[in-house]
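ok trying this again, last paste got cut off
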Amino acid sequence: MNNEERLERLNVILDELTEMCGESVLLVEGMKDKMAVVLLGVNAEMRTVQSEGGPLKVAERLFDERRSAVILTDWDPKGEQIAEELERALSSLCVKYDTSMRSRLRSLCGSEINDVESLPSFYSRLATESVRRKVGRK
């Protein structure tokens, strides 16, 4: 898949993420991740897991609020650990959650980036390369 196709897929994922978060709360690790998501134009209610007391506290709040979640942690080892802890905590409280957007982003980005805060620069690079390709420059 070329970078233009990757950019198109990234735009689709971001649109779907905004749509999903109309009903669910988006869970990110920290403030830099939250800012990155905002920069990408995703309009969502977000919670930062680290500043809200960790996975269990966030899960308990969502249970109390009767809300579902979309997990969007980094796909580095620490982010994987936090995602697993969130899944366990949410499952134990019967809180619905989704990890598909995280998986799709991880797959799309490959080994180029491994965290949410790098998504805006990744997006920018894909967009720049796509424009250059259309114009015929390298």
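PB: full thing came through this time. The radius of gyration is 16 Å.
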